[in-house]
Amino acid sequence: xxxxxxxxxxxxxxxxxxxxxxxxxxxxxxxxxxxxxxxxxxxxxxxxxxxxxxxxxxxxxxxxxxxxxxxxxxxxxxxxxxxxxxxxxxxxxxxxxxxxxxxxxxxxxxxxxxxxxxxxxxxxxxxxxxxxxxxxxxxxxxxxxxxxxxxxxxxxxxxxxxxxxxxxxxxxxxxxxxxxxxxxxxxxxxxxxxxxxxxxxxxxxxxxxxxxxxxxxxxxxxxxxxxxxxxxxxxxxxxxx
Length: 241
Prior knowledge:
Protein name: Hydroxypyruvate isomerase
Number of strands: 9
Pfam families: AP_endonuc_2
Keywords: Isomerase, Pyruvate
GO molecular function: hydroxypyruvate isomerase activity
CATH architecture: Alpha-Beta Barrel
Helix content: 25-40%
Organism: Gemmobacter megaterium
């Protein structure tokens, strides 16, 4: 049976952060994943909620902020961000760290991004997730396509650099059929897969995501990063049905 992870940057956002973990467990999730909330949160309370519920922490992001990360923007700023994220990941037992690239384009940004990834790889054995984010959702985001991810991997062929494939972003970029085939081809480098309804990032009910059965076969844990419109437990039950 597929395991499901709740993205707590999108789900249960009306609750205090540690309570989101308990709500995820109560809704039937096996795991959770964070944006960057834990870096400024009560780590003892977050750890207590993880231990109490027994849910797995799939991963967390580096600092996001108004620029959606700083990996392609600042060497000093990113190194501060990554050190903090890695410390939190180690303390909470997160499986991976998502390196958020930032809103930056051009040769200087590319050089900064590659140098920062090289620096980060030297400081952890954890997988580092890189997520292409479509221009429709974040104009100017540095890593904006699977081709951009492949270019990074060609220059930094470290197996710990893994693709975080978001169905909403990739489906928006390439169309559903092409996105599915591209994700299948990228499977050897796939670190995490996230699901939402393609047209509006809404509830990913199986009848509205016809590719669900094919996608679920690609990963042991599927992240749900979507804007909820119906009870979350109903979505979880639908995906498990």
